[in-house]
Amino acid sequence: MSTVSKSYAEHSDPVIDYCTKLTVKLDPLQQKLQDATIANHKMFVMLGAPEILTIGQHFLKLIHGKNCLDVGTFTGASALAWALAVPNDGKVISMDVDHSALDQIGRSIINECPKSAQKIDFRLGSAMDTLNSLIDEGKCGEFDFAFIDADRANKTLYYEKCMQLLRPGGVILVDNALAGGDAVHAIGDAVITDACNRHISADERSHSFLINTGDGLHVAFKA
Ligand SMILES: C[S@@+](CC[C@H](N)C(=O)[O-])C[C@H]1O[C@@H](n2cnc3c(N)ncnc32)[C@H](O)[C@@H]1O
Is the CB of 51 under 6 A from ligand 1? Predict the structure, then answer.
């Protein structure tokens, strides 16, 4: 049986530790935000896995990405990761229905780096409303990168909205792609996860692959 786990969570897989130690090099501000979230939020397991955030930053640099969609803010760890990876004129639109974790923990830490903070537009409200308003404002094709990490039930719809908003060659990362129990056999909550994975994998508008890092990552490049 394979281990599916975020590196900061309790696990007993030496391969996860080996890969993380060798390749995850968090910026000190990211480390501070991660430590503060783990120490102060009872739902800290929602925090993006640092290995996933690192992969996203590498993809952003590889495609020279500037404009990012961050679906699910929580304390702001993913928004900060993208802000650090894009150039000075880059922008991150980060959306969440609830800003309490951001206000309690993340915002003051992110503000310690004004250069990164000024790139992030934190939007309060349902991600579906925010994505729909961006589409209505005529912003389809203007984004380079999307990270989908909010409510599981809407994952497939968020993927569809992000496909509209991305330019060809843009990257969508769908987090928690092996989460929710037994994703391989689509049991329990993993039924939704499995349905989203199958939807992306059958989508001829993108090239995708599914990897076992963190609690699973589905990577899709818009063709
Ligand atoms: C897993 S956390 C995001 C973690 C964050 N991306 C990170 O890297 O640390 C999921 C977030 O999605 C938010 N959320 C849940 N339902 C939502 C919705 N319908 N629209 C927008 N955000 C939602 C939750 O409030 C929560 O903060």
Answer: no
